[in-house]
Design goal:
This protein is an alpha/beta fold. Helix content is about 55%, strand content about 10%. The strands form 2 sheets. Strands 3-4-5-6-7-8-9-10 form an 8-stranded parallel barrel, surrounded by 8 helices. Strand 1 and strand 2 (about 10) form a beta hairpin. Residues about 1-15 have low confidence and may be disordered.
Length: about 450
């Protein structure tokens, strides 16, 4: 299954030019029988739209009916076990080891975020999340070579303030510039006339929280991929992330930003931010996704009476993803190790297109700054095939207790219900591999 290097199991190397094949299912031979059975059960359940749509209510109700203990056991044997890396450091380390053993890499994530209207009083909740993020840095650093982690800005800064800052950034000649925000991260007082004294106070402590996490991660060699969230807070998130890049990406891309191709301004923001980083002489990191808040974005636009920020249909989103991918891979080909790119998608066509363009642009499968990313427990036939072919592949690994991750599980299921319901090929390959083992076929 792999060979040991420095105590870490790695997948078999593949010769350059080894073709990708998502349809033969041989990559599933790397999984245990228990993992195959659980994946097949969970993915079949997730194929029912009503179950996915009402996942939060079903999980909460089942806890009341079954009791916390039985509910927790059932969840760990199914959905939690499929999509979450564990609760304790030992469980997270074991999950990371299982991924490394089949040629994949873990990207740890604390599933904590906040939306507008969910703000907390005081700084206690945000400070606790800083501690959790620092713990995540340590756990990620211990998972093996090339560690990564995800970070939600709204876990460390009020979503309401992020919305306010985003509105201010849309004004002519905004006061909140990248240089001034980076200076606040470095210790200067936040004193922006466009914000209230309380907003300035919270902005200052929040920016320094973010900087503390990013600085600690860079010291330990952990790359931080800052998640995009809703369109009405994203400008503030990108500003903070670019300021972190200005402070920590002088020699290597330790901090990466996320770009959502389903937004109509996704390509423009990606190209603009890359140019801003280049002008300042800092390395640039990109995680490219389609986007996960589609229904929320459309509902908010409808209720607010303003145009939808997302593309009108799925085909337009696919085209946008391809255009953004072209920009990102072009940056990687031009600037080499000064740029990092994660092609974060479950779409097989996008993955194949990315690998083809990498070959055409002369970007190596490993060591060229480009990697792939999928969620833990989803599209394993794609992840494993990529790993077998010698590409760098990460699985997003959320961790935490069953109750703490319940909202995350429900949200991810709803956001990815199209992928889950369309995962026919993966279910078919899982079933075929199970039959092969039961019948003891070669």
């Amino acid at each position: 299954m792999g060979q040991e290097r420095g105590g870490v199991a790695v997948g078999r190397p593949a010769a350059k030019g080894t073709p990708l094949n998502f349809g033969d299912g041989t990559a599933f031979r790397l999984k245990s029988g228990r993992e195959l059975a659980r994946a097949l059960l969970v993915l079949r359940l997730c194929a029912f739209p009503r179950l996915v749509r009402h996942a939060g209510t079903i999980l909460a109700t089942s806890r009341k009916v079954l009791g916390a203990r039985l509910w927790g056991r059932l969840l760990r044997a199914t959905f939690y076990g499929q999509f979450v890396g564990g609760e304790t450091p030992a469980e997270v380390a074991a999950a990371a080891g299982r991924l490394r053993a089949v040629g994949l890499r873990p990207m740890l994530a604390v599933p904590t975020e906040e939306d507008v209207g969910q703000e907390k009083d005081g700084e206690e909740w945000y400070e606790a999340n800083r501690g959790a993020a620092l713990d995540c840095v340590g756990l990620a650093a211990a998972t093996g070579p090339h560690p990564m982690m995800q970070l939600k800005v709204t876990a460390l800064m009020s979503a309401r303030l992020c919305e306010t800052v985003s509105r201010r950034l849309a004004e002519p000649e905004p006061e909140l510039t990248l240089e001034r925000v980076a200076a606040v991260m470095g210790g200067e007082d936040a004193a922006f006339p466009c914000l209230t004294p309380e907003e300035n106070r919270h902005l200052g402590v929040s920016l320094r929280r973010l900087d503390h996490v990013a600085g600690h991660a860079a010291t330990l060699g952990v790359r931080v991929l800052v998640d995009a969230e809703q369109s009405y807070v994203n400008p503030a998130l990108s500003l903070a992330t670019l300021a972190l890049m200005a402070r920590h990406n002088r020699e290597s891309p330790w901090v990466w930003n996320t770009y959502q191709a389903y937004l109509q301004d996704g390509k423009r923001r990606l190209a603009g931010d890359a140019a801003a980083a280049r002008r300042r002489g800092v390395c640039f990191g990109v995680k490219l996704v389609r986007g996960a808040y589609l229904e929320l974005e459309r509902r908010r636009a409808r209720e607010g009476g303003h145009p939808e920020p997302v593309h009108p249909d799925l085909d337009a989103t696919h085209r946008s993803y391809g255009e953004c991918l072209e920009v990102a891979l072009g940056l990687a080909a031009r600037d080499g190790e000064e740029v990092g790119v994660m092609v974060a998608t479950h779409n097989e066509v996008s993955v194949l297109h990315a690998t083809q363009r990498m070959e055409e642009l002369g970007i190596p499968r490993q060591g060229g700054g480009v990697c792939f990313g999928q969620l833990l427990g989803m599209c394993d036939h794609v992840s494993l095939a990529l790993g077998e072919a010698g590409y760098a592949v990460y699985k997003s690994v959320p961790y935490g207790g069953a109750e703490a991750t319940l909202p995350y599980l429900a949200r991810r299921a709803q956001e990815n219900q199209g992928v889950l319901q369309a995962a026919r090929r993966e279910r078919r390959l899982l079933a075929r591999e199970l039959r092969r083992r039961l019948l003891r076929r070669p």
